[in-house]
Design brief:
Number of domains: 2
Strand order of the largest sheet: 1-2-3
Radius of gyration: 24 Å
Number of helices: 14
Helix content: 40-55%
CATH superfamily of the largest domain: Intergrase catalytic core
Length: 291
């Protein structure tokens, strides 16, 4: 995989792909090669299908995990080895359509209060207050905080830049963090090595501990803060187009799914059962089921 490693890295750099994408591709292709103890150059469609079947049946890999391997192998054979026929007819696993896990405002506050260090508190508040992904909040630079215009500049997914809101209360918290733990270097939230930003695994670990300490039973991940940001904005009456812009969604259809978990419109709908009971109170007789 040595020569392929260099070719994949060069191709990813030329395409402007993120390090996470490149590392993910490389890791999955290495796993494929290790499974057969052969170079991908010596294998073809039969081995690719056999490997994917192994993932699905022997390892019970999720549809999302299988899709990740398919994407990596397609990149390898199409773009690096120039053998697109190997992956031409690969089936695509159907991903389950799950609603996002949304935290209530009280739960968000409970997690914030259960977070131990002010640096981690500032990270939680920034993600929820501006709707940031975990990699986006980790990669914030000091210069991304625009206190004059009350905006946060974000280097988003797929190298797409956008801006989000900076609330006065969040700005106050960030200033408190600055005073207590002045960040060295260019990063707003540096890691142990100040030349690098904080690791996303560190953020995720701190969040999980806070969720457990707060006694929250939902299967919430750090990304739930972004889901909650969007849902709470919609519940407050914010136009969905503005929410789309703040989240950096290319399609409004991605943003629309948050209307499915919003309590605002559900609370205005009366259940047919309540209508029957109200009729009964007014002296009417709802239909009784036949015995």
């Amino acid at each position: 995989m040595g020569e392929l490693h260099d070719k994949m890295k060069a191709e990813c750099l030329l395409r402007g792909l993120s390090p996470n994408t490149y590392n993910g591709y490389l890791c999955r292709c290495r796993r494929f090669a290790k499974h057969f103890m052969r170079s991908p150059t010596q294998m073809g469609e039969e081995e690719v299908r056999s490997f994917l079947l192994h993932l699905a049946t022997e390892e019970n890999a999720s549809a999302a995990a299988q899709k990740g391997y398919i994407g990596a192998l397609k990149f390898l054979y199409r773009e690096i080895l120039k053998r697109p026929e190997v992956v031409e007819n690969l089936p695509s696993p159907k991903l389950p359509k799950r609603l996002p896990v949304v935290l209530s405002r009280e739960e968000v506050m409970a997690i914030f209060e259960a977070t131990r260090f002010i640096k981690h508190k500032a990270i939680v508040a920034t993600s929820y207050g501006a709707g940031l992904r975990i990699a986006e909040v980790a990669g914030l630079r000091k210069t991304d905080i625009d206190s004059k215009r009350m905006r946060i500049h974000i280097q988003g997914k797929g190298q797409k830049e956008r801006q989000s809101i900076l609330s006065p209360l969040l700005l106050e918290l960030l200033r408190d963090y600055y005073k207590e733990m002045p960040p060295k270097g260019e990063w707003l939230f540096p890691g142990q090595n100040p030349r690098r930003h904080i690791c996303t695994a560190t953020i995720s670990g701190a969040f999980k501990r806070a969720v457990k300490k707060a006694g929250i039973q939902k299967k919430a991940s750090f990304h739930s803060l972004r889901h909650s940001f969007a849902t709470h904005l919609l519940e407050n009456g914010t136009d969905i187009r503005y929410v789309q812009q703040l989240l950096g969604h290319a399609s409004i259809r991605t943003t629309v799914r948050y209307t499915h978990v919003s309590n605002a419109h559900l609370q205005t709908i009366q259940s047919p059962w309540d209508a029957l009971k109200n009729l009964e109170k007014k002296g009417g007789r709802p239909c009784k089921p036949k015995k």
